[in-house]
Each structure stands twice: as structure tokens, then as C-alpha cells.
Amino acid sequence: MKFVDEFREPEIITRTSEQIRRLADPNRHYRIMEVCGGHTHAIYRFGLKDLLPANIELIHGPGCPVCVLPMGRIDDGLSIAHDPNIIFAAFGDMMRVPGTQGSPLEHKARGMDVRIVYSPSDALKLAQLNPDKHVMFFAIGFETTAPSTALTLVRARAQSLHNFSVFCNHVTIIPAIRAILDSPDMRIDAFIGPGHVSTVIGCRPYEWIARNENKPVAVSGFEPLDILQSIVMVLRQLRDKEAKIENQYKRVVPWEGNHAALRAMADVFELRPYFEWRGLGFISQSALRIRDGYSEWDAERRFNVPGVRVTDPKAAQCGEVLKGVLKPHQCKLFGKECTPEHPIGALMVSSEGSCAAYFNYEHRKTATVTSISSAA
Amino acid sequence: MCLAIPGQVVELFPDQPNCAMIDVVGVRRKVDLGLLQDSLPVKGDWVLIHVGFAMSKISEEDALDQMRTLRMLGEAEAAMQEVEGYGIEDVGGTQGRREAS
Predict the structure, then answer these.
(1) Mutation site for B-interface testing, chosen from A2, A67, A144, A360 by largest number of B Cβ within 10 Å
(2) What is the domain-level CATH number for residue A183?
(3) The predicted structure's pLDDT at residue A376
(4) Beta-sheet strands, E only, within chain A
(5) Which of A64, A104, A261 comes nearest B55 by C-beta?
(6) Same domain, yes or no: B10 and B46
(7) Between chains, do A145 and B36 touch, taking CB under 8 Å as contact?
(8) Residue B81 lies in a domain
(9) CA angle B8-B50-A209, nearest 5°?
(10) A267-303 per-position pLDDT tens digit
(11) Is residue B27 part of a domain?
(12) Which of A105, A122, A248 has the most B C-beta neighbours within 10 Å, making it the best mutation to test the interface with B?
């Protein structure tokens, strides 16, 4: 319980942890999936596993947008930017994600014009500032970032800015949850719902999980106490044989979501018939593409895209880890060939990826203990 | 990217209704208000920001909570780097704001 002294209210944490122990039936094994990568990060960072009884297993979900992006999409985006007239703009999170021929950063070292932007609207400004170049924004993210890309496209069209386009990789969280529930090798008892995605989509989109699948969901904040309280909520439902959506993060998440953001997304994007997710394969209606009215700003229609499909390195078991079938350290490459300094799979790149989180907190802790005990 | 950054609206621009100057722990940058157009914030309000866009209005207490959460998660530095990175035209010139390095 290394981080326990950092908690704001340690006595409430302890009480909530005891409450969880009381609620958990010792004859039962619970598998609770936290969907969001931010939660995965928090769980490892705060060592929350140590505050739970052994029969509660937290399964890390697919909610890290960098991690679920198949390598072929990175290759496709980079292939467009081989043209020296094109500026490849992306969030910093993307820069170290490996493609077949290296990451965007490595392409930059070989001469590609690659820029970090912190907002899609800054990619738009980059286009305004470089009228003789074309700026392609490599868009990633769930519903937390998709509305901003949508609004940026609205602005690009309103300004008739023709040297700007978006390579759209936006994905939506609900179909991924559905795919996990449909997967025969997965058994999940309850979900910890994503906090900030839900500020946009609200709580209603989760209702089918309770109604049709009979699984409890608690939309959760990111503090240790938030996550523990969400676990209490779903355990209580499981004990009472209930299934409903509870909003633990009421202080930030409105039940109905953000209508303006949802409207912006609906105006600009439509669902793709299917999209490939790393680890989960093709999932129908799980990603967004740009509507016809914005086709001029759609990099996939404006440029020749090879449509590359790349299988992950054989030895890397990103897929199994993403689905929660394997724990990060059970992958053959974990901590050996694949580390945060030299990532092979995307799960090791992003701080929200379960492998990076596990490596930074669990693995380093274990490694220190081992080296101390072997020195003794 | 997925964790929101809290900031306080310190200035609104009558000629740019979709834009506000926000303050995040002393760093001031312009953010886009387009996704809050149903209920635009006023000066002094606190908002959560994702990738340069204000996404929701929150209380001051929740804003301070969120900053502390980022700090506890070890994400505060990255969040501040993101905020400092907003706004190419304000600082960058034609080469853009921040080189990938």
C-alpha cells in the first residue's frame, strides 16, 4: 500500500476497503472491468489492488485509444505524409506509437514533417499558417476528443480552408463493451464506466448493459476513493441481484451528457460499418468516419490510402492483454523486449495502457523488492 | 487526452463568442467554447478542458479536486505541458508551436 499515505482521506479509504470486503462473497470470484485507461492508470498508480480482497479481479478494458489502434492505421496515416508537402499533425500520445516502419517520431528523424499539436484546432491553425502546405491531422480518441475534431471540421468548412484534412480514427466505447460481452472467452460480472467519456455521452448509452446483459455499471471518477466507491456500488448490486447504471461521478457527469458535443459529432461523423480494433478484431459500427458533406476534409478520401492490415509481432500478446485474458506480465515480451523506453506494443506506450501502468508501478516495485532481497 | 484539465474562465471576448481565456494554475491560454454553446460559461466559471475545448462546467471545488487528482496520478506535468501547448498562432510563428522531440 505504497501510495496510501497520498490519499486525501485515508480513513475513508480504509472504511470503504472494509466495506468491499464485507460485500464480497468469499465463495465467489468477481471479475470487474474498468473500461477506461485513466482508471487502469489510477488503479496501478495507487496500488488499489492491495485494498481489495483476492477474489476481486480487476480486468483492464479497451479504453485507451492509442492502444486499440491497429498498426495498419498508423502505417496508412504515415504513408500519406511521405509527400513532402504534407505536415503530419497528431497529439503527443501518438508520437512514439510504433508503425511497421517506425513511429511518427522516427519518421520525423528521417525527414517527415511531423508536428505535435495539443488540440485539433491548433492543427487547423497550422494549416492557416502554412498555406503552401497541407496539414493532415491524425485524429484519435473516444468521445472525449471526437466532438472537438468534429467542431474543428465545421470550422474548416466554414472558413473554406482547403489545405487541411483529418485522418479519422475516432472510436466509440459502447460497441467495444458489446464486443467484450459477446466474446466467448470473457466473463465479466460488472463494469466501472468511464468518467470523462460519460461527460459527453451521459449514462443512458450504458442502460442496455443492465437491461439486456444483466450487468451492473458504475460510472466512476478517477480518485482512489471514487474507484473504490464504484466497486462498492457494483458489489452491492451483485449481492442484491440487481443490474442498473449508477453514477458515482455525479459531480462531473450529467445523466444526459453534453448535447452540444453530441450534436457536433452527429453533424460531422457517421458510423463506419466496421472498424478493426487491436486485440478485439473487427467490430461493427464501432468507429466514426467523416460524412459526405465534409468529404473534402477527409484524408481517407482525399489521398490514396493503402489500407494496410498488419498483424502484431507474433511474440507480443497485446490482443490477449487488451481483452483481459492475460495480465500484462504474462506476455512473453513484457519487461524484456517490450518496455516503456522501447515499446513493441501500443499498450506499453501510453501511460493509460495497462502494460505501461503495470510496468511503471507493479513491475518496478517487484523488481526493487527482488533486487533488495537478492542483495541481502 | 482522456483526463480532463480544470481551468477557470478569466476573460471572454465579445468579438469571439466561441473563445475564452482560461487560467490553469497560472498558465493562461485560449480555449474553444463551441461544445458548451447550450450554456456558455461566464467569467469566473470553472470548466473541464479536453484537447483545447471546454467540455463541461464544474464547481470550483470539483476543479480543485480534479487538479489534485491529476497531481496524484503524476499527470499534472503532462497536463500543464498540454495547456502550455495550446494556441499555435499566439506564440509559434510558421514553424508551429512545439517540435516533436
Answers:
(1) A144
(2) 3.40.50.11750
(3) 44
(4) 30-36, 56-63, 86-90, 114-116, 134-139, 164-168, 190-193, 217-219, 245-247, 269-271, 274-277, 281-284, 288-290
(5) A261
(6) yes
(7) no
(8) yes
(9) 120
(10) 999 999 999 998 788 999 999 999 999 999 999 999 9
(11) yes
(12) A122
Residues 6 or more apart whose Cβ sits within 8 Å of residue A252: A195, A196, A199, A221, B4, B48, B56, B58, B62, B66
Closest CA to A80 of A38, A131, A124, A134: A134
Whether the CB of B19 is below 8 Å from some CB of chain A: the reply is no
* Domain identity same for B71 and B54: no
Overall domain count for chain B: 2
Q: Tally the domains of chain A.
A: 3
Alpha-carbon span A246 to A242, nearest angstrom: 11
Q: Chain A within 8 Å of B67 (Cβ-Cβ)?
A: no
Residues A149 and A58 in one domain: no
CB pair distance less than 8 Å for B53 and A95: no
Q: Residue B66: list chain A partners with CB under 8 A.
A: 252
Distance from CA of B22 to the nearest CA of A (A): 15
- Per-residue pLDDT, A367: 63
What digits encode the pLDDT tens for the residues A1-30? Answer: 343 445 667 899 999 999 999 999 999 999
B35 and B45 in a single domain? The answer is yes
Q: Using CB atoms, pick whichever of B52, B89, B92 lies closest to residue A148.
A: B52
Residue of B nearest to A154 (CA): B34
